[in-house]
Design brief:
It is a single chain. This protein is an all-alpha fold. It has a domain of 357 residues. Helices cover 71% and strands 0% of the residues. It is globular, with a radius of gyration of 25 Å.
């Protein structure tokens, strides 16, 4: 077992600890639920990945999903004829992939009408509830999220929503962000199974493992401080409005059609927008790189002095035209001058000795990235009362440009520049997350972390077999920049990047943009990350 195993092992414990630090009430955390949830995840991971019966079950699940997809292909062939070709399924996205969403939506509607899915969800919820001690309503919702999306899952607990506690409502939202809907999973399998035959088994395992993890993280972030009305109860109450099974199938197909059309429309729009963004970013990078070649001999410490002088001028101007009577403004001025100047000069000297003239920009960007996020959030929510603190937050916000300049001045082939950009933006993300306490955003962020926990477990277990994955970083583009942010974040929190990407190669920009759209809409953010062009999909 190499370093990847220990990276993953560290992430399993580090991620819950990070969430606990920012809990709304650390003294009320249900440690039984936390420990029990992690144990369930580990047991599921070991059974599926390390035991022969588990691997057989994994294969059965994978084959079952692929078999269902073949039925979807038959329906699509009837409608679209020879436009459906298994060898070119990726090329015929609209005719081969989108129909799977419609088919799975109709199938799930039939299963709910028949009562079969309710029994499965109740069984899963009963096991989780007994182990974790969570309430029946929240456990049912999270369990339903294994099979359906975050919009449909709360319908199984509709009668209990009005009486749910704040902690339960947070759990319902986290569960929606942490799992993948059946129709979306079918779409991913349809796109990737030709290149990664076991993709269906991986996605099903990931969604199942994320259910207990969602309960763990939700209870760490917003512990239960009230008495839930459904504690100890697991019962689904759904008033089915369908007249018969045909009506259920037709209704499900209609719902799936709406989703498929939305997916197709967003893909067309965002593919064009991202290509436009790629062109702009590439052009800017070329211009700045050409400029950096001309200024390559300019000493690093002079860059620091110029940068510090500009910041001082901006800060003094803001203070002068702000509230001059504030008694703390001088302290703020001194701190603002001292921090960037000291950092840049010290790092310049060290970087010169190491032969890395661009590193002052990189390290400074890493240090101030965190404060940028905190500063923006503080400023937006008016938490800071004194003018010098607000001015300092505004000033630090300007400093994030250091990270971008590092990447661009270093050239598209500079690994140090890429690392600096990722580090700066990581600081931005973390700083904003820590101080951004809005419930909806908090639930989305926690749901995203849930997938990292499952990824960490998978990284540790797959490292035993030395399973490897390849990340193909191509030209400077939006996908590459966003991919570096999340790969850097994964490394920062202790997840092996190679094992985190162990899902399979993407088949072009279609999947990339789908991930991009998913993140922006928060629909399936917890199941898939933002990736590089012709790279891999991040799935736990």
């Amino acid at each position: 077992m190499g370093l990847e195993f220990y990276f993953g092992l560290f992430g399993i414990f580090a991620l819950p600890f990070i969430v606990w630090i920012f809990s709304t009430d650390r003294s009320k955390v249900m440690w039984k639920a936390v420990i029990g949830g992690l144990v369930i995840q580990l047991v599921l991971g070991v059974l599926v990945l390390l035991t022969r019966p588990g691997q057989m079950l994994f294969k059965v699940m994978n084959d079952a999903v692929l078999g269902l997809l073949s039925f979807s292909d038959r329906g699509a062939e009837f409608l679209f004829g020879n436009l459906i070709n298994s060898e070119f399924a990726a090329a015929n996205f609209a005719f081969s992939v989108l129909p799977t969403i419609i088919f799975f939506s109709a199938l799930m509607s039939i299963l709910y009408y028949s009562g079969f899915m309710q029994k499965v969800v109740e069984f899963v919820a009963w096991i989780i509830m007994k182990v974790l001690g969570t309430s029946g309503a929240e456990t049912l919702s999270v369990s339903a999220n294994i099979f359906v999306g975050q919009t449909e899952a709360p319908l199984v607990i509709r009668p209990f929503v009005e009486d749910m506690t704040l902690s339960e409502l947070n759990t319902v939202m986290v569960g929606g962000f942490a799992t993948i809907a059946g129709g979306v999973m079918a779409a991913y399998v349809g796109m990737l199974h030709s290149y990664f035959p076991s993709i269906a088994g991986h996605l099903i395992t990931a969604s199942i493992m994320s259910a207990p993890a969602a309960l763990v993280m939700a209870k760490l972030m917003v512990p239960e401080t009230e008495i839930p009305t459904t504690r100890g109860e697991v019962k689904i109450e759904i008033d089915d409005e369908h007249e018969n099974i045909i009506d259920a199938a037709a209704s499900g197909a209609g719902t799936g059609l709406q989703l498929a059309l939305n997916v197709g429309a967003m893909l067309m729009a965002f593919i064009a927008l991202v290509h436009m963004g790629n062109f702009a970013v590439g052009w800017i990078g070329e211009q700045i790189y050409a400029l950096s070649v001309q200024l390559q001999g300019f000493p690093a410490f002079l860059w620091g002095a110029v940068f510090a002088a500009v910041l001082m001028a901006l800060f003094i101007g803001r203070i002068w035209w702000g509230q001059r009577r504030t008694k703390y403004w001088m302290l703020g001025l001194l701190l603002t001058i001292a921090m960037p100047v000291a950092a840049l000069f010290v790092f310049s000297d060290v970087a010169t000795r190491l032969g890395l003239p661009n590193m002052p920009w990189a390290i400074t960007g890493l240090l101030i990235g965190f404060f940028l996020g905190a500063g923006i959030t503080f400023k937006w929510f008016r938490v800071l009362k004194s003018v010098w603190l607000k001015s300092l937050a505004w000033l630090i916000g300007v400093s994030v440009l250091v990270g971008y300049l590092t990447f661009l001045l270093g050239g598209s082939g500079s690994e140090w520049g890429a690392a600096a950009l990722g580090a700066s933006l990581i600081g931005l993300i973390i700083g904003t997350v820590i101080f951004w306490r809005r419930p909806s955003a908090r639930s989305a962020i926690v749901g995203f972390i849930v997938v990292f926990v499952a990824a960490a477990i998978g990284a540790s277990l797959t490292a035993i077999f030395n399973l490897e994955a390849i990340a193909l970083f191509q030209e400077l583009s939006i996908q590459r920049i966003l991919g570096m942010i999340f790969s850097g974040l994964a490394l920062l929190i202790g997840i092996s990047f190679s094992d985190l990407l162990l899902v399979g190669q993407l088949i072009g920009e279609k999947v990339v943009i789908n991930e991009f759209v998913s993140f922006l809409s928060f629909q399936n953010m917890a199941v898939s990350g933002l990736l590089t062009e012709r790279s891999m999909v991040i799935v736990s």
